[in-house]
Each structure stands twice: as C-alpha cells, then as structure tokens.
Amino acid sequence: MSEEILKALMQLFAIIAKQDVGVSTNERVYVENFLRQQLNEKSVKEYLTLFDKYIGDKKASEIDTDKEKEKKSKLISVKDSVKILGIAKKINKTLTQKQKVVVLVRLCELVNSDKKFTPQRMAIIDTAAEVFNINKEEYNAIETFVIEDDFSKWDIADILIINSEKKIPKRAKHIYWDQLEGSILVLHIHSVDLYFLSYTSTRELLLNGLPINNRKIYLFARGGVIKQPKDKPVFYTDVASQFMSDDTTINVHFKIDKVHYRFPNGHIGLMEISLDEQSGKMLAIMGGSGSGKTTLLNVVSGMIKPTRGNVYINGNDLHEKSDLLKGIIGYIPQDDLLIEELTVYENLYYSTKLVYKNLSEEEIENKVNKVLFNLGLSHIKNLKVGDPLNKEISGGQRKRLNIGLELIREPAVLFVDEPTSGLSSRDSENVMELLRELTVRGKLIFIVIHQPSSEIFKMFDNVTILDEGGFQVYHGNPVEAVIYFKKLDNQINSHIGECPSCGNVNPETIFSIIESRIVDEYGQPTVNRKVTPIEWYAHFKDKISLKKITGVFDKLPESFKKPNWLNQYKIFFARDFFSKISNRQYLLLNLLEAPLLGFLLAFVIRYIEDPTSDVYIFRNNDNIMPYIFMCTIVALFLGLIVSAEEIFKDRKILKRESFLNLSRSSYLCSKIGILFILSAIQAFFFIFVGNYILGIKGMYFEYWLVFFSLAAFANVLGLNISSAFNSAITIYILIPFLIIPQMVLTGAMFSFDKINRAIGGGQDKVPIIAEIMPSRWAFEGLVTNQYINNKYNRNFYTQRKLESELYYKNVYYIPELKRYVEDYKFRLSQGHEESICEEDLKLLRNEIVKENESKFTQYHNHRFEKTDKLVPEKFNRSIADELTSYLIRLNDFYRIRFNIVNNAIDEEIARRVSTSKKHEEYTQLLNDHHNEYLTSFVKNAMVPLPLVRLDNHLVQKTDPIYLEPQDLRLLNFRSHFLAPKKHFLGSFYDTFYFNLVILWVFTILLYFALYYNFFSKTIFFAENIIPIASRKIRATRIKIRDFLIEQTGI
Amino acid sequence: MVKRNVSSLLLLTGLLVLFFVACAPERPDDLTELLTDDLISEEMKMTDEAVGQMISSVPNPVEMTILLQKSNVVYSQDLLNPSGSISNYNTNFKKALNLGVYGTDLVYMNIYDRTVSTLSYLRNLQNLADGLRIGQFFDYETLNRLSESSRNIDSVLYITNRGFDNMTRYLIDQSRSSIAVLIAYGTWIESLYIATKVKTHPPNKELINQRIGEQKIVLDNMLHLLSNYRNDPFFEEIFLDLMDLKKEFDNVTISYIYEEPVMKEIDGKIVVIDNSRSEVNINDDIIDGISKQVEYILNKIIE
Predict the structure, then answer these.
(1) Whole-prediction pTM
(2) Residue of B6, B19, B300 to mutate for A, most A C-beta atoms under 10 A
(3) What ipTM was predicted for this assembly?
(4) Do A922 and B90 touch (CB under 8 A)?
(5) Are A901 and B39 an interchain contact pair (Cβ–Cβ within 8 Å)?
(6) CB A476 within 8 A of CB A543
(7) Tens-digit pLDDT profile for residues A513-547
(8) Order of strands, edge to edge, in the sheet holding A308-313?
(9) Chain A residues near residue B28 by CB distance under 8 angstroms
(10) CATH architecture of the domain with range A253-543
(11) Could you give the CA distance from residue B104 to residue B190 in angstroms, rounded to a whole number?
C-alpha cells in the first residue's frame, strides 16, 4: 500500500473515529493492528502519530454532556463531510476499484471494532461508498459481512459459509469442512472479483501459513489456502468456484492416465505422467529446461499422440475422438499468432466470426468490443498489430490479444505455453490475472511456465513439476510444493511455504533443491545430482497420492458452433483479403511487378529487322516464340512467389485454429481464391502490356487464360511447398528447382528431338518427363493457338494442313517406302539370297497397314490387300512389283491432289491480292498477324531429317503443326510436340483447350495433394528414414574403420 | 469428410465436362471436294520433257555475270531486288518469278564476292521455295553448306545451280512445270536487266551488248514456253509483255558466219576447234529500247 493511500486511510479512519463519542481504545487498537499488518514497527508509530494528529486532542473521555456532544458532532460532521468528500475523491483518482473496495471494508471493520454504529459514522461510510462508486447491494453485503454476528443474517447470495454443519443455508453458498469449529465466512465482491474472509472462532486456523484472528477480516487472494492443523486445506479456487456464475460452460474432467512419450529419434520425452483435473482450475507445468514441459502440453492438448497412455476428457479419449473434442480445447502457443497486417480489432473480429455462426454482425461487434474492453485493449483496437520488429503494440498487449483470441471462443480447456515469457512483470501479472479470471468462469487451464514470480506462482491451484527425462516429481498445491521439497531436503523451517512477513513464495527454491548437485572435496559442484530424477519420481510415487475425481461427467456439446463451409470460406477470404490489402508494400509490388516485367520483356525484344526502317513489323520479329516461352516462365515465377510463403506464414495461426476443427478445404480454397484473383490480375497486366508492345493482336484473352492457368497451377504448387517445408529459406531454395526443369523441358529452349535419348529425346512423342511439366502444355497451347488461330492463318489453316499432309506423303513418305522396295529389287537382281532385311519388311508392313487405314484411302481406293504377304517367308519379286505399282499409284494420287490443293490456296491468295488496295490489306493482315520465325518453329523447319525411322515405323518430323496425333489408342492423350489437335477417348480436341484442361487437371491434383498433405507427409517420412539410414551408414563406416585399423595396425 | 470429398469430386467432374463441352471435338475438315473433284485438266500442248529441255536452254545467270565481272563492270547493289521486298510475294506466281530473280541476284553477289548480304538472299530463296512447297531443295542442310562455303564461290555457284536444276526437274516431275517456267523466266529477266543496266566503256561494252543481242534466241524460246500457259491470265500478261520486248529485239539481227574448223593438239589430244561464230548487230538505241522494256517487265515482277 502506498504512502498516499495510507495517509488517506489514516485521515478517513480519524474522521470516522472522532465522530460523536470519539475514538475508543478498541478503535485505536484496530488501527494499530491494521498498520502493523502493513508496515514495520517504526512506520507503525509514524502513522499512528499521524492518526492521532488527525483526530486532534479529542478523546472520548473529554466529552461530558450529551448536549455538547450532539452539538459538536453536528458541527464537526459538516466540516468533516467536506473533508471526506475531498479525501474520497483523491482516493478515487489514485486507487483502483479493488483497492477502494478494500478501503471500504476496512472502514466498516474500524467501526465494527467498537460496535459504535452511530448515524454519523455510518453516514460517512455511506458517502465514501457512494463516491467510490460501489454499488448499493455490494455495499450492503459488505456491511452485513462485517457488522452482523448473527448466523441467520449471513444467508445472502454473496457470502459463502464454511463450517462443519451439514445444514445447507438457503441463499448463501456453503462448503462442508469436517472438524472446523465455528464458521468461516467468505464474502465475494462480484464487480471486482475480490474475496474477504473472516473466522468466527478462536481456534488455530492458518491462512497462507499465517494465523487467522477471530472476526478479523482478511483478503482472501488468489492462490490462498486456509488450513487447520490436521485436515485437508481449502483453496482459493474451491471458494471461487462456488461463486462461478457461468452456467453455460460445461464441467470438464480432464484425466491424464500414465502418458508416456518417446520421440521419433528414440529419446524419452515423457515418463508415465498422470493427473486428474477439473474445470475451474489453473495448473502450472514447470520444470527445468529439457524436462518435457512443452512436450507434455503438446501431448495433452492432443497435438501429439502419446506412445503409451491416454488422455481423457469426460471419459472420451482425446486422441481417439479428436474431432469431438477439438472444439472444447484451446491452445495459446508461446509465439504470437496474430495476423500482423490486421488491426487488433480485426484480429479478434475474424476469429469471432470463425467461431460463432449464429451471431449477427452487431452481436459479433459487441462481443469483440467487450473482450477488447476486458483485455484493456479498447484504446488500441484500431492499431495494426505489426510484427515483433516493427512494433505497434507492446508485447503485453500482443500477448493479451492472443489470449483474447481464445477467450472469445471460450474453450473449456485451455493450454498456454509460456504466456509470460518476454513480458515485464507488470504485463506478466496482467496476463496471468486474465487467465486466472477464466478459471473462475469454469475453464480448466494448463500453463507451461518458467520462473514465475511469487505472485504468479501463487495464482496456480496446482502445479506439476517435471524433471529431466520427463519424470513427474510433484503434483499439487504450489505453496505446498515448496514445503514438500524443503522437507525432503531436510531443511529447517520446512513447514513454512511462504515468507511469514511478506508472503512471498520463491519457486526457485524448488528447482534449486531438485537440481542441487553433489559438491566435491574442493567445494565445486560436480555434474552429478544429489537426487536423480528417478529418485524424485520414486518419492512422488510414494508420498503423493493423486486426487481422484469421480462422478458423472457432463455430456460434451454435440457439435461446435462453427459456421458452415461457405461461411468459413467467406471469413477466411475476408481476413486474408484485408490483411493483404493493408500491406501496401506487398500489394503495390505484386501489382506493379507483372506490368513492369511485361514492359521490360516486351520492350527489350521489340525489334525492327530492317535496319533502315522505323516501322515495327510483327511478322518479322523473331522474338515472338521466345516471348511466349518467357510468358510461361514469368507465369510460373509470379504464381510461385505469391504463394510460396502463404501457408508457411499462417502455420502458427493454423496450429491454433486446428483446435477449432474448421474445414481445411475452406481455408485452402480461400487462400487459393485470393491467390487466383491476384494471379488473374497479374496475368492481365502482364499480357496486356507485353502483347500490346509486341503487337500481338487479337489474342489477349487466350494469352491471359493460359498465363492465368499456369500461374494458378504455380499458386497451388507454391501452397504445397509452403505447407510442406518449415522455413522460408528452404522454400526459396526450392523455387529454382521447380522452375528450371520447367524451363528446360518446355520445348522452346531445347528441341525434344535434340535431348538425351535416355529421357525420351527424339521419339515420336513428347518425352514423358516433359509431359509432367505444365510449362510445356502452356507453351504448346499458346504457340499452336498463336499460329493456327491468328487472324491471318485461320483463313488457310485447314487447307494448308491438307496440303502439308499431301506434300509429306508425296515428297517424303511414299518415296521412302518405294526406296525400301527398290533396295530389295536391286539386291535381288544382284543375286543376294537374303534379299530383304526382316526389319525393313516389318517397317513396310507397318506402314502399308497404316496407309491402308489412312483417311485418304476412301478417296483413292488404292488398298494393298496382301499385307499378310509382307513377311520374309512369303515376300517375293511379284509381291514387290505389286507393292511398287501400288506405291506409284499412291504417289500419283498424292501428287495430283497436292497440286490441286496448292492451286486452290494460291487462287485464294491471288483473289485476295487482286487489286493493289486488296494487296495492301492482305500485306497488312500478314504483317500484323503472321510471324515468320514462329512459323518456321512450328513447322520444325530446322529439322535435319523430314522423317526418321524409329523401330519399324516412319515418324514425320516436319510440319508438326499440321500433323495430327498418330497414336489413337483410346486412353492415349500424348502426341508429338506442337500437334494441332489432341486425341483422347476417340475424339480430337483443339490443343489449346486440351492443354488448358491438362493444366487445370494438374492444378486440381495438386490441390488434393495439398489437402491431404501429400508433400509434407513425404518429407516427414524421408526425414525420419534418412537419420536411421545415416546412423546405419555411420555405424558401418566406424566398423570398417575399426576393421582397417585392426588389420593395418595404424 | 467423405461427403465433402464426394462433392469436390463432383465439382471436378463438372469442371472437366464443361471444358470438354467447351472444346467439343471438331468435325473433320470439309475439304472433301479438293480430294475428289477432278478440277484439274493436265492438258498440255507440250510434253513435260520438252519443257524441261527448253528450260535448260535458258542461259545460266553465271555466264552473264562472269562476263560482267571480266568486263570490269562495277558492282551495284542498286540493281538487285531488295531482299525486303519478299514480303510482297504472296502467290505462287509471284513467288516463282522472284525465286528466279533472287537466284540471279545471289549469283551476281557471289561472283562479285559481296558475301555480307548473301545470307538474307539465301533466306529469301528458302522462304520462297518453302512457299512454293519446293523447300526440300533449299533445306537446312543445303543452306548450311551454302553459308559455310560462302568463301568458296565455285561451290556456292555449284550448289545454287544444282539446286535450281533439281528444282526444275522436280517441278516438271510433279506436273508443276508452270512454276519451273516462271523460275527460269525470273532468272533470265533479272540477268538481262542487270546486263542492260551496267555502264561500261568499249571494248567491253561491245561484248556485253553482243551478249544481250544473243538473248533474242532465248526470248523466242521463252515465248514458246509461256505460250503453253496462256489460258492463265497471269501468264497471258507476261506473255504479252514479252511480246513487246520481242518487238525491241526484232531490231537485232544475228548472222551466222561459217569458218573452217581447225584441229589442234592440246595436251596430247586432238581437239577440233569450231571457228564459226554468230555476229550480232546491235546498237545503243536498240539496247536502250530493250533496257526500258526489260525494266518495265521486271518492275512488274518484283513490285
């Protein structure tokens, strides 16, 4: 108590005491005793002198007549009441509501010390109560509690009676305590949550180890214990829980049954931990570092499955029925779980929305504001949370907000990991008081705590102490813990838990006892402990019997009040959206990045071929194909970068929200939704700027669609890696690994004909390894679309395709087949016995069969029926002649038809350029839409051989853009690169759309991989396999080394 | 969970169905008539063989250019068809003519050892040949060899000549002799144009003029060739233009002067030397007239 308050109190005491009859001896003794409780001897005298001074020289004996008394008292009362008002107002300014209540109780007690309840005195106290803003009912309760002696008068709702009578009072609360003489009264002041205690008997009774005097009033603070010499104590929470008014919370029984945990690497984390707790308790988990505190917290909160043993909540196994129980568990990790970009209010707001589906917007706002008020955060509710380096709110405020996020949901069981770490002592106490209040409302709270202050330590109802190796060495009352260890350590005064004068409990005592080391002969502590963890564990098993809680459990709520999938999606979406747009740097960079890149790229590669001209001609820009390639790479990059950290960043929040049992898919979809929107915008800017500068006309939508689809794929890929890896640097190291193969295997940089044959280079289809590269599908789709559907080419594409087919057959294919037959004839004429190679014949057979089924057969009707003769045994000169004449007829057909088609196209072009105006238009069309380099790329003009022999087939290498897929098996969708159409399930689809579908199939597959955590599971598996393997390798290496040493003697 | 998966699967299928509907399989190309109708009548007044022979009688631009070079005629890039003009050639007709023109230009440049711009002309050749669907004679391999041997003029000329010869033979083989005729025509007109445009002094000038005058015979062959295709309006047009040129050439007279052949022993072998020669009567006015008409014709071709 501060000097100022004491002075104020002295003044008030004096004014009350000197009323009417004046100060009695009892009153002065009361004041003296009161001071003695607070201060040392010297100061007591000092303040007593002050008290005497305020009273003046007026003593009770000096007043003689009643008349005089009356007259004087009235006079003084007027003067004093002004004074009282002054003092009370002063007190109002300096004291908290709690302290004011204490002052009021003390005033009543003073009056009660001599039982002189004169109207003047009572009037002064009334005034004080009024100025202090203490509500009338509570004031009455205080009066009743202090003044009344009659048992029957105590029967009011705010009073708790503890006695050995079995009779239960009507309105008052009651605790039965065997062997107690008289009654203990406990008054609860609801508005400030204070408890006062007094005892009606003179028998020895200890409060926190100090004796209680008859009818004196004590503040029954948190962590308090009332004890009789030979009985179980009554704890603060036993009392507080009687006044619990929150009927909606369920009564939870939490049972940890012989939980044993072994880490994947074989170390033991927890050793047979057991305890029983129920609602309304706050339990500390303490221990030296490495004793498994956090592990215990993780196991009992259901995040890790114990190796052995079970955790039950109301009889339900936490790890078996996690879905059922998740909603009633809350978890507040050591690190902050705030969304840094959002304000304090918004953080709470979205959490609230995620938890309560039925509340209206107004109710949610009220709820959030109420919690903010309770947390003392109302004044900063519109501040952004900010990150720890860029602080906008203090550490204590962050922590309180963190707790608030859980508070709002009101889980029945709350797990808190080191809530006070890094906080000032004031902040720590605030935070702990906040948590303590929750227990009063019926929550069960487990807190891992490190080096708590005395105040905080005493707040706990129970403490579980762990020692190295996960041994449980104590479970029970915190103050008792000190006594327990002191006793075991045979210390003097071992029965005293707290400092008799200051009431401090030093939890460090416990650890210095547990971890004390054997001292060697030089007085230096050795590494060996006096008492090993196992011995402490044995003591614990021996001396402490765990309280078993039995009875009927409440039924768990059927389902959690969470919103449905769509609403969750909306909330997640809004939360993410607002956190993104509040980060201006992020937003600006992401939105500017795409158009800037587009500009940079397009501007650099926009060139004019003719050195003498200033006119840019799209047709002659050789960089269009590389531009399309770069589009795919940029799409991948942008898509990956925006998403690569998304889930990783949220992982703490996800950890907490995992207890909310929210839908993972709605979370993921909201992420994806936001990223898709961002990517769509980026795609738009990039394509708009890039295509505009390069003069790619009329294809904006198609480019955008492909760019967006690929970026969307990269988004989901990024989400996968961000959920699979646990550090930002790993993620960014991984990005090149994901992008470079995609660059290499797009088909743009390296022709699929000219890559290593081991991975499928030079085959008739795109190598399989490239088939799994979305960049290739995107690139192929864009290039084929750019070529086929540009405004110029689309007029001629079908005709040119036919022309190309006829040309190939006419010029390369049929002559090649003829060559095989002629070779045979030549060798035959030279008199070779084995005139035809079996392989060549196979090729001929394959190709002729194919030719018989060709789509042209119906037009020329030349069919070679004797394909069965194309085997070495049956093949002979006459068959060869027939074949030749068949091939000649075919060749004639293809030649004539080619000429017809060629002429038809030529006539069409001639028609289009018939006048000079038309010619100009035609040239313009050509210049604007047709690109020479792209054309030679899609026609594979640089290919050394127009057709190649693969196994016993001929494969066309020229004009891939005009070549339909050759492999028409039902489920086959693979084809050569740049095929204009794709085949699947017996139908042909435009490559552009087909490839888009493939991109989305990739994306959807990745979504499922994300949903089922495929990658993180794989990595987890690998991480656990590799250490075992490397351990084996190391062991083998050592063996080999030993063996070599043994053998060589080195 | 199961329910959600089912619904997301439904969504997935829905999405795919939508896509496949959106890109519904295409109907087969409606080009049947091109494959069935007998639109073409390959009636020719002349056999392919004869066309081939006549084309091979058209002088190679190499001879003319070597003559120019030997006559100390200064190289002039301005005489050539600019390589950028290629974008104007869209029809087979134009492409074939200019393939010839560019071919001559390439030869001219190579003989004068102006290799800097050769590559763009080579690319043009390839481009036009591709457009005419005879790209196989200027394929990647050939081009590679050409650019590698650009220092070796003989091989460039050899490859170019062979390319043109093969092309002609192939085109005739493919019943596309009209294209071959146009290429030959283009080649010839361009070399004639260059020859008529050079400025020289006597006695070289006489030599060149005489060579121009000799083209009268070639012109007759050309007219004969082109007359085969006169039912085509484009051919008709160049035929008529050529008739105009013929009018100019009609002023040229060629007389054949016979002299006894002489036998000589060269490197141990007996060789008969024909001393007969044709004498071409030509003057600057005639050259002027020819030059104007050739320029007119060429401008039409390369415009």
Answers:
(1) 0.73
(2) B19
(3) 0.82
(4) yes
(5) no
(6) no
(7) 888 888 888 878 888 888 888 888 888 888 877 77
(8) A316-317, A308-313, A253-262, A268-278, A471-476, A462-467, A282-287, A444-448, A413-417, A329-332
(9) 855
(10) 3-Layer(aba) Sandwich (3.40)
(11) 6
